[in-house]
Amino acid sequence: MKNQTGFTLIELVVVIVILGILAAVAVPKYIDLQKEARIATLEGMQGAMKSGTGMIYTKAIVENQTVGASTLSVGGVNIALHSGYPIGNWLGGFRYIVGLDTVNFSSSSAICDVDWCGRGNQTSIPSGVATTSPGRIGKVYPRGYSFNDQCGVYYLNHEDGRAAEVGLETDEC
Q: What is the end-to-end Cα distance of the chain in Å, rounded?
């Protein structure tokens, strides 16, 4: 008899089926990990924005600037405040909370091509969070997304004496 080497057709089919099953299980888990990583990054930005907001508000308390509109100088930068919190305007307010002052605001449909982009002076965001005038909402979003996507961290100052809010939009991350 002749010695055979290699795999039989049945063995190859079994290996291909096993690889297909593994791929069907592994790919969705990998995609979920990417989404979880993006959300974790947003949660980190949210924490930084809450901390920055708290520090600015604390300085506003010390300087007795917690009622109505005012301006606070922090590190040589003038930040527009209302009720002691930065306003939701990108250029004048909330971009300074986390040191994004070198990032220019973008149009609502422009895809972010740097680490973080932002837009402010809105009364609502895509997820439905809204305020009434004179309140303003701003949003910071990561590379690859636009303001219109529900993937970002929003900052809301109602400008009516209530504390500013920092929240997440994660439905489209």
A: 62
d(CA 145, CA 172): 9
Residue 158: which domain range? 9-169
Buried/exposed code over 121-160 (b: 16+ C-beta within 10 A; e: otherwise) = bbeebbbebebeeebbbbbbbbeebbbbbbbbbbbbbbbe
In a domain, residue 3? The reply is: no
**Residue 143: inside a domain:** yes
Residue with tokens 């929003």: 154
State pTM to two decimals.
Answer: 0.81
Q: Number of folded domains in the chain?
A: 1
User: Residue 112 — very low, low, confident or very high, per pLDDT cuts 50/70/90?
Assistant: very high
Contact 87, 136 (CB under 8 A): yes
| Mean pLDDT across 108-122 | 91
CA distance 90 to 118: 7
pLDDT in tens, 54-73: 999 999 999 999 999 999 99
Domain membership of residue 2 (yes or no) is no
Q: What is the pLDDT averaged over residues 40-47?
A: 95
